[in-house]
Design goal:
This protein has seven helices and 16 strands. The strands form six sheets. A four-stranded antiparallel β-sheet has the order 3-8-16-10. It has helices spanning 27-40, 46-61, 116-125, 133-136, 156-170, 179-186, 249-252; strands spanning 10-14, 17-21, 63-66, 69-73, 78-79, 87-88, 100-104, 107-110, 153-155, 174-175, 238-244, 267-270, 286-289, 292-297, 300-301, 305-307.
Length: 310
């Protein structure tokens, strides 16, 4: 498994207590996390409490600060032909056609999608059995369960609960990102960027998966991040967002910090995922799925966000 910790993070054990140093957290904050883990999960073994503490500190360290601002969310158009001044739709979905002004406060977004390893630990702590046990038992399916691949999910609520749980232990307001926050970050703070890659272009095998092999999930730190330092906002998992879906919401959305309709039947997902055709994996692509799916799916993951507090 690749090391997803910052190089500055060092983990050591001293007399049964975990001491973790990082650029973001001081010793007192780390010890406070450890104390909250012990208080929240007193019946766990010391090794499990240590693993949770490491997970929480890693989650905090992996948060990327996104300075807020205003942008026109939705369809922004691209030249119909190279050099043309005539604009055509950048995306095929009519839901995105109504560009609307959105203004966001500062926030954070995880540089990585939640990993299978971290989500498995959470589910173990919560007393849940591993998902997809019949596949995990097959030798010819072990490649689907590499620890640094994105987590599989089945329900929106479980993804949200994971983020909130991490935030409670970190004493920070973690949650799923709104779809406006997701798009603003994918577009490098709302610029007219078509692909959420390092340079805004889609180059298979260089900054996205190659097109000449089987479509598959990739480790969460695969390929260069976008200019904000966030990885795989295209080409890996489709990602849950906080919002309920409505086909007319872009025409009704408030400007300030929108979080979607108050109710709905389906939840917005962003990114498209690795099964989406390459030209369609744009920063404005949106879809929606039931908040409770029939099975755990490898192509339906998530990343956590955090409200910025001063």
């Amino acid at each position: 498994m690749r090391n997803l910790l910052s190089p500055s993070v060092i983990v050591a054990l001293f007399a049964g207590c975990t001491s973790v140093t990082s650029e973001r957290l001081n010793n007192a904050q780390i010890e406070a996390i450890h104390d909250r883990v012990e208080e929240r999960h007193p019946n766990l073994s010391s090794s499990q409490q240590t693993a949770i503490t490491e997970l929480v500190v890693r989650a905090v360290d992996n948060m990327v600060f996104v300075e807020g601002g205003s942008f026109m969310m939705g369809e922004f158009g691209v030249p119909c032909e190279p050099g043309s001044t005539e604009l055509c739709n950048a995306d095929f979905s009519p839901d995105n056609d109504y560009a609307h002004k959105v203004t966001l406060d500062d926030y954070y977004l995880s540089k990585f999608e939640t990993t299978l390893s971290d989500f498995d630990l959470y589910r173990e702590i919560m007393g849940r059995t591993p998902y997809a046990p019949e596949l995990r038992a097959r030798e010819d399916r072990q490649h689907l369960f590499q620890l640094d691949l994105p987590a599989w999910t089945k329900t929106w609520q479980e993804a949200k609960d994971y983020c909130v749980w991490l935030g409670e232990l970190a004493n920070r307001p973690f949650n799923l990102p709104s779809e406006a926050q997701w798009e603003f970050a994918a577009r490098n703070r709302g610029k007219n960027v078509l692909y959420a890659t390092n340079n805004g272009e889609y180059t298979p095998g260089v900054n996205t998966p190659p097109d000449d092999g089987p479509a598959k999930m990739r480790p969460v730190d695969s390929f260069p991040p976008n200019p904000l330092g966030i990885h795989n906002l295209t080409s890996n998992s489709a990602e849950w967002t906080l919002d309920w879906y409505s086909e007319t919401y872009y025409q009704e959305s408030p400007e300030m910090n929108p979080t979607g309709p108050s109710t709905g039947e389906t939840k917005v997902i962003r990114s498209g995922g690795y099964r989406t055709a390459s030209p369609n994996k744009t920063t404005i692509l949106r879809d929606h799925v039931n908040p409770v799916e029939e099975h755990y799916y490898e192509s339906l993951g998530f990343r956590c966000g955090q409200t910025h507090t001063r």
